[in-house]
Amino acid sequence: MNLTKTPVSLDEAIEASGGLSKVAHALHISPNRLANWLKRGVPAERCPDVEAAIGVRCEFLRPDVNWKVLRTETPRDIDGSSHA
Fold first, then answer.
1. pLDDT of 3 strictly over 60
2. Which of 22, 33, 71, 72 has CB 3.0 to 4.6 Å from 18, enough for a Cys bridge?
3. Per DSSP, what are the bridge partners of residue 76?
4. Closest by alpha carbon to 38, among 59, 24, 55?
5. Is residue 51 within a helix (H) or strand (E), and if so which, with residue range?
């Protein structure tokens, strides 16, 4: 379902990916919940799922979240050592 171009809107991306029901099924949510996200915005914790399902980057969905930090940091212990 990934898009080849950046969509103008989430609604456009959903339409290009087969419609509300198909995308909702891919996200394991109801079409009503997805319609709600269209009105109110995608919850930040679900942006990675939407990105994986239809190719719309988290940065587009929620520009208020600093995704750069989340994409580049690695988990660290309290003592500062990385988990690899």
1. no
2. 22
3. 82
4. 24
5. helix 47-54
